[in-house]
Design brief:
alpha/beta; Pyruvate-ferredoxin Oxidoreductase, domain 3; 8 helices; 6-stranded mixed beta sheet; globular
């Protein structure tokens, strides 16, 4: 990856899914390679399950951290409804990597809604070319590894292996060494390597 590479990435989910840490790991890995990085997070009542999204820009062709509609090369979605909500940021030919398992919003719980994310995944499949959509079952990883706190690493690993982020697994692992406490490294490394298409 050279210093002329430009990537615009949107990461989105809800509070508690580790969206911000995933964004920081990508940013740290890119900076370690000498690339210019700009980022901005929008966190709405995140501790109560509100939406969280990050704009992450890598390269020399940007002048502000926020993306406009149609500029994202990649959307990394931690919750299918949030992924669909951010879809307007995706540029033509861009790639979406998303978790298929929803986080049921409070309004759906209170009204008895049957929201299970399937409509959102169906919408993505109808509107994106198959090679531009990767759907990951994050819950399967959580069940196998025994921790709900590793979803971000599962999705980050899947995204890196698509090649669309422009960084390698080793780049991210080096950033993990710097940003993740040693006590949590083994579990996070297992999660990062969990999903292989």
């Amino acid at each position: 990856m050279s210093n002329t590479v430009n990537k615009n990435i949107v990461l989105c989910g809800v509070g508690g899914q580790g969206t911000v840490l995933a964004s920081k790991l990508i940013a740290a890995a890119a900076m370690e390679k000498g690339l210019r990085v700009m980022s901005a997070e929008t966190i709405g009542m995140a501790q109560r399950g509100g939406n969280v999204f990050s704009n992450l820009r890598i390269g020399d062709s940007m002048h502000a951290p926020l993306l406009q509609s149609g500029q994202a090369d990649v959307i990394l979605g931690f919750e299918p409804g949030e992924t669909v909500r951010m879809l307007h940021y995706l540029k033509p030919g861009g790639t979406v990597i998303t978790n298929c398992r929803p986080v049921k919003p409070t309004t759906a719980t209170l009204t008895g809604s049957s929201y299970d994310g399937t409509e959102m995944i169906a919408y993505l499949r109808e509107n994106l070319a198959p090679e531009k959509l990767l759907v990951v079952d994050g819950q399967a990883a959580i069940d196998e590894l025994g921790s709900p706190r590793i979803l971000n690493m599962v999705l980050l690993g899947a995204a890196i292996r698509t090649g669309e982020i422009g960084l390698t697994e080793d780049d991210i692992k080096k950033a993990m060494d710097r940003l993740i406490k040693p006590a949590f490294m083994e579990m996070n490394l297992k999660a990062f390597g969990f999903y292989r298409a």
